[in-house]
Amino acid sequence: MDSTEFSAALRVPAHPSAKPGYGKRSAPGQHPRTAADFAHLRPREAAIAAYIDRLPEGAAIGYKPLAANVADYGQQACAKALKFLSHEGHLRLVKEHLCTADNSFRWVTRTYFSRTSRDDEWWKAYVDSLRGIDLTEMERRQRGGDESVREPEPAAVVPSPPAPPSAAYRALARLGRTEPRMTLSATECAALEPLAAQWLARGVTEDHLTRSLTGGLPHPLHSPGAIARKRLETKMPPEPYEAPEYVTRAVMVCMGCEQPENVVTLIKGMCLDCNEELEAYDAAEETGLVIDAIPDTFRAVPAKQEVARRADALRAAAGFKTRPIPRPAHGELVQTYSLDGAELLRAAE
User: Fold this and answer.
1) Local structure of 346: helix, strand or coil
2) Max Cα–Cα distance, the chain, nearest Å
3) Whether residue 257 sits in one domain with residue 299
4) Exposed (0-12), middle (13-18) or buried (19+): which is 269, by Cβ within 10 Å?
5) Separation CA 130–CA 247 (nearest Å)
6) What is the 3-state secondary structure (H, E, C) of 78-110?
7) SS3 of the chain: helix, strand, coil, percent, to 5
8) Same domain? 126 vs 11
9) How confident is the model over 141-158, as a mean pLDDT?
């Protein structure tokens, strides 16, 4: 497939992040990225998969944010593309039960993506392996790896203005105001700045740093720079303890209806009914019948009954079993579809 087909979808300056703990997660052990990663998919699914592949960890990859940021595809197309990507082994929707740092519990939903297609057995084993994972450490590693998926920035043309002194440098430069004998030169401040920055990064305030470097000084004091270095090194505070957040349970859920795997049987990331419906939609698209999505705010009646009838017509056209359809209320206008896709409008008796 020609890579130019993806160009419109990839020219997006900034994609939104999901809420903390949600969003995209990359599956491990993927093959290196190549131009043919998604050549087995149709153009729509290939373009959306290539776009998702380049998003950082934690990006929002539901159908709404995708439709808002991917050119040429609306919400309905993105929603169907996500289901097809699940069907082809690139996506799985997982609910994780977390024990958080404050010892409370919550559920989060994550979408795991793999540019390398995986079968059901691989996904099942991987989701089962998530139990007990230290998410605090995992996310720290992933944040460090985000740089590998970012596109290179163009070279700067205009020189950047000089950076202002850091908080660590300023704290060192002000030592002489508190204790004149600890006045440091600009060279000494620059040399000691990395050590002082470590103190501040570990939660120490500038006042605490000043007291630690100026209190209990020897008499006489010959080398303030040497004293400051020795104290910065030997009295370095410990790194703050961060209680880990870990997964107590992970459950794969249907990409379509989000029912969990312990309630329904999942095949290719979806339950039997959603797989059937996906195949019906696919068959309808092959015949040229496009399934659109109209917001409820634009309808005279709720969409539930109309969608049910349309899905039922699609199932029948594709040779699948039909579902019971709720009978409309008396006098309600109902839009139905014949097997050839023609629209009919009638009033319920």
Assistant:
1) strand
2) 104
3) no
4) buried
5) 7
6) HHHHHHHHHHCCCEEEEEEEEECCCCCEEEEEE
7) 40, 15, 45
8) yes
9) 45
pLDDT bin (cut points 50, 70, 90) of residue 188 is very high
Q: What is the DSSP string of 306-317?
A: HHHHHHHHHHHH
Q: How far apart, in whole angstroms, are the C-alpha atoms of residue 262 and residue 252?
A: 9
Residue 289 gets the label, from left (phi > 0), alpha (psi -120 to 50) or beta, of: beta
In terms of domains, do 118 and 249 share one? yes
Q: Are residues 317 and 217 in the same domain?
A: no
User: Domain of 229?
Assistant: 167-234
Q: What is the mean predicted confidence (pLDDT) over 287-315?
A: 54
pTM check: above 0.70: no
7 within domain boundaries: yes
Structure tokens at 339: 């097997």
Per-residue pLDDT, 277 = 85
Say if residues 317 and 287 touch (Cβ distance below 8 Å).
Answer: yes
- By the 8 A CB rule, do 101 and 245 touch? yes
CA dist 92 and 252 (Å) reads 7
Residues 6+ apart with CB under 8 A from 218: 227
Contact 127, 141 (CB under 8 A): no
User: Bridge partners of 91?
Assistant: 113
Q: How many CB atoms lie within 10 A of CB 46?
A: 21
285 is a domain residue = no
Identify whether residues 94 and 210 lie together within a single domain. Answer: no
Confidence at residue 310, expressed as pLDDT on a 0 to 100 scale? 60
Residue 113 bridge partners (DSSP) = 26, 91
Pairing of strands 270-271, 333-337: unpaired
Q: How many domains does the chain have?
A: 3
Residue 251 and residue 219 share a domain: no
For residues 248 and 230, state if they share a domain: no
Q: Is there a domain that residue 153 lies in?
A: no
Q: Is 130 within a domain?
A: yes
